[in-house]
Design goal:
Blueprint (H helix, E strand, L loop, with lengths): L10 H5 L8 H13 L7 E5 L5 H9 L4 E6 L2 H10 L4 E4 L13 E7 L9 H10 E14 L26 E2 H10 L3 E8 L16 E4 L5 E4 L7 E8 L3
Parallel strand pairs: 1-2, 1-4, 2-3, 4-5, 5-6
Antiparallel strand pairs: 5-10, 7-10, 8-9
Length: 241
């Protein structure tokens, strides 16, 4: 169908060779994990939307006693992750319905760059909370709107009139997320931790790939060819009220 909404797929992007060393975002997420998990004793970590296993590999390098599981919907990426990071367990599955994962099974749950694929964040957030243990931490990193507005955003490359529309940049507000979490019986508290790159990122040929621009006050603004990207890590403390 001309102009239909297509399924999300960025397989080729995730299979590209990465830069030397971990992504700065991975380091920042690792810092948040380190503040809330006993690295020496080991812990169970679930990475939702694990792609080709890059964060799982970083987590194991930083927390070698951790037991890491990755959940990914794309079978090609699951195969790549298993080959690249055999010390972790990778499962094919849906972030909105984590069939096969037990209740209260993980001490840390991470989900990075995934929730904005969906038209409703609540199913994936609910599943992250379901599989988290009492006292666990859920860390969702991605774009969140600090203004009280939600937006469904679908995109295609210019002048490709017959192409499907792609998801991937839906924007959910802090207000909507907070309203959901404050009503959830397994949430003790939450905070949004802003994310900013400490270095410049140049534009690339693909305008969907992000870059930085200088703001009016000299700050770095992360954006792509669609919009500025207000990245943050949502850190949720799990525990029955």
């Amino acid at each position: 169908m001309t102009g239909a909404r297509g399924a999300y797929s960025r397989t080729g992007v995730y299979l590209e060779g990465g830069a030397d060393g971990p992504k700065h975002m991975f380091v920042r997420i690792g810092d948040l994990v380190a503040r809330r998990a006993d690295a020496a004793a080991g812990f169970d970590l679930l990475d939702v939307g694990a792609a080709a296993g890059a964060f799982a590999a970083y987590a194991l390098s930083r927390f070698p006693a951790a037991r890491v599981t990755g959940l990914e919907h794309d079978p090609a990426l699951v195969a790549a992750a298993r080959a690249a990071c055999p010390a972790a367990t990778f499962l094919e599955g849906d972030a909105n319905r984590m069939a096969g994962l037990a209740d209260s099974a993980f001490d840390v749950v991470t989900m990075t760059g995934t929730h904005s694929i969906f038209d409703d964040f609540r199913p994936s957030f609910s599943e992250c909370l379901r599989v988290a243990r009492e006292g666990a931490t859920v860390i969702v990193t991605g774009i969140f709107n600090p203004w009280p507005v939600d937006a469904q955003i679908h995109w295609r490359y210019g002048a490709r009139f017959e192409a499907d529309w792609h998801p991937g940049y839906n924007l959910f507000s802090h207000l909507s997320v907070a309203t959901f979490l404050e009503a959830h019986p397994r949430v003790r508290g939450h905070e949004f931790v802003p994310f900013a790159l400490p270095f410049d990122l140049a534009p690339r040929e693909d305008p969907i790939r992000s870059w930085t621009e200088a703001g009016a006050a000299g700050e770095r603004i992360l954006r792509n060819g669609i919009m500025p990207l207000p990245f943050a890590s949502l850190v949720v403390a799990v525990g029955n009220r």
